[in-house]
Amino acid sequence: MKNRIAQRMTTISPSLTLAIAAKSKAMKAAGENVISFSVGEPDFNTPEHIIQAAKAALDAGQTKYTPSSGLLPLRKAICDKFEKDNGLCYEPSQIIVSNGAKHSIFNACYAVLEEGDEVIIPAPYWLTYPEVVKVCGATPVYIDCKKENKFKFSAADLKAAITPKTKMLIFNSPSNPTGAVYTEAEVREIAKVCEEADIFVLADEIYEKLCYNGVKPFSIAKCSEKMKELTITVNGVSKTYAMTGWRVGYLAAPKDVAKAIDSFQSHATSNACSISQYATIEALQSSEAEIEEMVNVFDKRRARLLQLIDGIDGVQAVKPDGAFYVMLVVGGLYGKSANGKVIHNSIEFADALLDAEKVATVPGVSFGADDCLRLSYSLSEADIEEGLKRIKRFVESLQ
Ligand code: PLP
């Protein structure tokens, strides 16, 4: 056999940071006191009433296939959510429920992208986007978002990146990894460019409820009817309701796109887990008190983390308005040595920090920002205090 593995699989980049993640796990397993800022999920439990709804679904025998696009009551609840939170009116036929927002993103890309298409991805980006785009045969085109502009791109930046081959913009606000949240005015400017160029927008709004300082995200699909016809909005319950393991994500799309995704999903995976779907109905229809509580805790940690970073010479942070990550800019320290070894990049920095102080971070190179480390603040305040003390000691030890 000549080509055992399909060509498209070779386009996926191996995870550059896998070695560090594995090392940190091994250290933890060996009983070492590792403080991990690399967590990508809320450190809260799924609220009890959601768990009860899942148990009730099990007891009621809701353990069979559902429609591939999701239970109708769930899709109706999602329509209500879009109307209430985003001012967007959809029919249940435009909603597809999948196995997590990551699956929704894959489906959306697979449905509209083909060989030769270009997809604009603002960097720093969530590391899955480029890989999905490449698997679909398209080419990622990056916009370099500057720290000076809070890691946001402008309408002019977008315009400059568009070519006749551009098919889609991936727009993630609030952003993983930067925490950047675009204002309504900024979103409207970006939408104008997309409308003019007639390109799709994949709007990843998974962190929409995790915003601080009264900052409110604005859905790009809301800008105009034309924009709504060009937008596939992705959301899910993983982050908002601390439900990462339940695997439920969803999207709202123009009718033709939703129909294509439904057909594809029906053959690829069928429906998302029936029990998780019942739990999601409960989550979406519940009061927001638990979310507010979680947001308040994250906000306190965010403030403390930023304060502690401020006390370390040679590094900076761009204040995030959403999600639960901070990009720590460490590029100014490259060229210095830790333990006699010169640090040239984010992988070497993260590795040296892990070795010296048992602090795990994610090297920025995985997000297209090699002068940064991503710190998650999904860990206790006590661990944040201790972790930052260690980072400060490490930075001060560099020669
Ligand atoms: N989008 C972004 C920006 C994320 O950070 C994540 C998870 O880390 C996802 C989508 C996927 O979420 P899930 O597949 O758990 O719903």
Strand/helix succession? HEHHEHEHEHEHEHEEHHHEEEEHEEEH
Mean pLDDT: 96
Number of strands: 15
Number of discrete helical segments: 13
Separation, N- and C-terminal Cα atoms: 54 Å
* Bound ligands, each once: pyridoxal-5'-phosphate
The residue fraction in helices comes out at: 40-55%
Amount of beta strand: 15-25%
Observed structural traits:
single chain; 399 residues; alpha/beta; seven-stranded mixed beta sheet; four-stranded antiparallel beta sheet; binds pyridoxal-5'-phosphate
Topology:
Blueprint: H1 18-29, E1 35-36, H2 48-59, H3 72-86, E2 95-98, H4 101-112, E3 118-123, H5 128-135, E4 139-144, H6 155-161, E5 166-172, H7 184-197, E6 200-204, H8 225-230, E7 231-236, E8 249-252, H9 255-268, H10 274-285, H11 289-310, E9 316-317, E10 325-329, E11 337-338, E12 341-342, H12 346-357, E13 359-360, E14 362-363, E15 372-376, H13 381-397
Parallel strand pairs: 1-13, 3-4, 3-5, 5-6, 6-7
Antiparallel strand pairs: 2-8, 7-8, 9-10, 10-15, 11-12, 14-15
Helix pairs in contact: 2-10, 3-10, 4-5, 4-9, 6-7, 11-13
Bound molecules: pyridoxal-5'-phosphate.
